[in-house]
Amino acid sequence: MIRKFTYAALSGTLLFSVNATAVDDRTQQYIDTLVELGYSAPEENELVHIPPSMEDLEEAELHPELKRVIRRGYDLFTNTQQLRGENVFNNMNCSSCHLGEGRMPFSAPIWPAAVTLPNFRGKNAHVNNLEERISGCFTYSMNGMPPEYGSDNMLALTAYHQWLATGVPVYPKQPIYGRGFPPPERPEELSYTRGEAAFQENCSVCHADDGAGLRVGDQTVFPATWGDMSNNWGAGIVRVFTAAGFIKNNMPLGQPNSLSDQEAWDIAYYMSSQERPQDPRYTGDVKETLEQTGPTFHKHSRYGQIRETDGHVLGDHSNLGDKTFLKPDTVRPRTFE
Ligand code: HEC
Ligand code: HEC
After folding, report:
1. Which of 45, 85, 194, 235 to pair with 153, CA 20 to 30 A apart?
2. Are both 9 and 135 inside the same structural domain?
3. What is the whole-number distance in angstroms between the Cα of residue 125 and the centre of ligand 2?
4. β partners of residue 255
5. Residue 164 in contact with ligand 1 by CB distance below 6 A
6. Which residue CA neighbors atom 28 of ligand 1 most closely?
7. Measured in angstroms, how far is the CA atom of residue 5 from the centroid of ligand 1?
8. Closest listed ligand to the CA of 183
9. Tens of pLDDT along 149-161?
10. Per-residue pLDDT for the chain (337 aa), expressed as one digit of tens each?
11. Same domain, residue pair 9 and 141
């Protein structure tokens, strides 16, 4: 499979990272592989880091108990469904969006969070640490309840993130190559009907016509792109530009950068015009929630907007998907007073 080849070619075999301007052979090879896959090469001042792989972990000179905890973090990240009903209430694994086990550039690799936090985060308007950032993805992307701060599972997850960042300076001054889901340029017009047709043609073979994906037993084969088993309205990927970036860089699986920019944006627009569980910041009224979260977040999503095909107001419901609470009690403001 192309995908297997891709990730094998991109996984690290040595435990070091390169962040000086001089580029060694291994880094050059890494960049060449990415460019062959259609990604842009790094700008001259960008930090390129090749995160270590699980094979590197076995070779690394770390305490065996630390290795065990990092392995546990990896296992939670790639099979988050083991926390189903406790912390996760949809069909996602962390690795459903963070491809290549959280190491893949242009697929929101997770290690940057370990070297750029604590920092101020506009989404919740206070200083967040790594645990709180991970909690954000549990709350919104997993439609769930974060593991308790300081718990074994939370520590294992942070250890996995931090270990992937091995060798990168804390608070790096350079911009990070391949961070996030960088979107292609927004075309002038987005079309629901074109997006729908392109989704049926390129995506529904795995994600199904109704976006529900495929689940076998207690394992997710293909995650749900919308509906009750998908991320909720508060997740970063509901922003149309983030979805467009994710799609262009990562989908169809194994064929990154194969869609045109227009197709990626049209599909993102179509996908973002479907229903999903309520935003945990819901006040009981979609208009009011939009007023509060619009300026920092929902101005980029379709939340509270009218779907042109049937007049439906997106997000105007109190469906929480599989969970019984709206907002996890760990999500609270901080003031440092
Ligand atoms: C539905 C998709 C989705 C799922 C599932 C998901 N995330 Fe994310 N994650 C995102 C998006 C979108 C971002 C923001 C990327 C950006 O800034 O462009 C993000 C960002 C992050 C970051 C910050 C990366 C950085 O550059 O600082 C971390 C860390 C992270 N996620 C961890 C997790 C963990 C741990 C899980 C599982 C508990 C998870 N994510 C599940 C979509 C997802
Ligand atoms: C060959 C099967 C396949 C095809 C085709 C495919 N995907 Fe995916 N997609 C996956 C898998 C598998 C994942 C989860 C990644 C993982 O587990 O490695 C995923 C993840 C996703 C996600 C993030 C998680 C979620 O469900 O929201 C989105 C969004 C997505 N795909 C959209 C698309 C779009 C849009 C297309 C068409 C352009 C597409 N996919 C085509 C298999 C596929």
Report:
1. 235
2. yes
3. 31
4. none
5. no
6. 110
7. 24
8. 1
9. 999 999 999 999 9
10. 444 445 545 654 333 444 445 689 999 999 999 999 999 999 999 999 999 999 999 999 999 999 999 999 999 999 999 999 999 999 999 999 999 999 999 999 999 999 999 999 999 999 999 999 999 999 999 999 999 999 999 999 999 999 999 999 999 999 999 999 999 999 999 999 999 999 999 999 999 999 999 999 999 999 999 999 999 999 999 999 999 999 999 999 999 999 999 999 999 999 999 999 999 999 999 999 999 999 999 999 999 999 999 999 999 999 999 999 999 988 888 888 8
11. yes
C-beta of 134 in contact with ligand 2 (< 6 A): no
**CB hemisphere CA count around 54 (13 angstroms):** 15
Residue 230's CATH number: 1.10.760.10
The residue contributing the CA closest to ligand 1 atom 37 is 94
Cβ–ligand 1 contact at 181 (below 6 Å):
yes
Domain that includes residue 231, residue range = 192-300
Q: Do residues 52 and 12 lie in contact, with contact meaning Cβ atoms separated by under 8 Å? A: yes
Residues 121 and 53 in one domain: yes
The Å distance, Cα 179 to ligand 1 centre, comes to 11
- 330 inside domain: no
Dihedrals φ, ψ of 161, to 5°?
-60, -50
Closest-approaching ligand to the CA atom of 137: 1
Atom of ligand 1 nearest to the CA of 117: 27
Could you please report the per-residue DSSP string of 76-109? HHH-GGGGBTTTB-SS--GGGTSTGGGT-TTS--
**Ligand having the closest approach to the CA of 245:** 1
Query: Of 307, 304, 312, nearest to 283 (Cα)?
Result: 304
- Centre of ligand 2 from the C-alpha of residue 90, in Å: 15
Q: Which of these, 13, 113, 94, 93, lies nearest to 54 by C-alpha position?
A: 13
